[in-house]
């Protein structure tokens, strides 16, 4: 759509709020919409697309516009990201801003420093180069700059994926099976899925294919006792419960009662009755300790930087710094060590993060094995192969957006031997 002065002002105001980094960018955009209810659906789509595009490309846009102001970032995004010509945008900007538009359009990306081309903070770019090598770091950074698709998980206890695909197509939605997850469905575009009867009936949940694959690494069976140790809003909890065919006992632990409360409406839609949400005070909560040595499967989807989800949450790369990551790594080790008390001998412990940083993934796994001789690593590729999932990234699961078209994830599986 062709923007107006009013829409550019709305986008600039919402971006300014997001750039305060007082909370997630999607909350800032939602807050702006609540305060400006006169905005129609297409207006909101323009504002949201502009804000998230500017956050993704903040460094290169600022360099091309020679200004870091939210208004300048919005203008630069019009010509560099949304494909508007200077002439098309002229009616919506001040005359003195035409020079900024021309300058932004003429800027050559290849002349920018590598970290600016990658639209990453210098420290994060350097970290990726040190962990992956520069060619792979460039490919990874570019993959994180794209927009993520909308993936759904078909709820197996309410119908097969094939039946759900047919129902979605009958409702006029273009969709296809995801390449790896046996329950995954990828939609074309970003339809308002929450308004669909299939969503209200609990036949589908919004969940990235990578997140679904983490549940497949846990691979719970009917009748087992399972713990989702950092359940959050419960997306993986619901996937695990469906894999258990609504049998056994599934505990959803989290230190945030508010996050767990978000599971309630999703649980009601899902039809699951084997899930038991429990808000714990710390990873060493007595209610968790009482389950020591009794659990068949434990998933630790640990708090992390979220750098694997930058396609959806581009503000994270500007909100988190090196010190924050160091604190998270220490927390991840503590949580995994606490969760390691729970599995029985022969039980499985899965550690996962939605980060592309190896220190939050492979580094934690190496440290865990070195300090927990009672555990041995199990091949994630073999676990997936046993379920007919043809995805082999080695003994540990490492999902990369530009290679696997999922969010960036890491997972390592361990078995308790003694």
What does this protein structure show overall?
- 45% of the residues lie in helices and 15% in strands.
- By secondary structure, it is of the alpha/beta class.
- The chain has four domains: 108 residues, no CATH class; 30 residues, no CATH class; 57 residues, Sun protein, domain 3 (Alpha-Beta Plaits), CATH 3.30.70.1170; 208 residues, Rossmann fold, CATH 3.40.50.
- Helix 14 links the parallel strand 5 and strand 6.
- The longest helix is centred in the last third of the chain and has 18 residues.
- The chain is globular and about 70 Å long.
The proportion of residues in beta strands is: 15-25%
- The CATH architecture assignment of the largest domain turns out to be 3-Layer(aba) Sandwich
Shape: globular
- Mean of all residue-level pLDDT scores: 94
Percent helix, as a range, is 40-55%
The CATH topology of the largest domain corresponds to Rossmann fold
Which structural class should the secondary elements be placed in?
alpha/beta
Task: Tell me about the largest β-sheet.
Answer: 8 strands, mixed
What are the SSEs and their pairings?
Elements: H1 5-18, H2 25-35, H3 41-56, H4 58-65, H5 70-80, H6 86-89, H7 98-106, H8 114-117, H9 122-132, H10 134-143, E1 150-154, H11 161-170, E2 175-177, E3 184-187, H12 197-200, E4 204-206, H13 209-218, E5 225-228, H14 235-243, E6 249-254, H15 257-261, H16 263-270, E7 275-279, H17 286-289, E8 295-301, H18 316-319, H19 322-339, E9 343-353, H20 362-371, E10 375-378, H21 380-385, E11 397-399, H22 401-404, E12 409-416
Parallel strand pairs: 5-6, 5-8, 6-7, 8-9
Antiparallel strand pairs: 1-3, 1-4, 2-3, 9-12, 10-12, 11-12
Helix pairs in contact: 1-2, 1-3, 1-5, 2-3, 3-5, 4-5, 4-7, 5-7, 9-10, 13-14
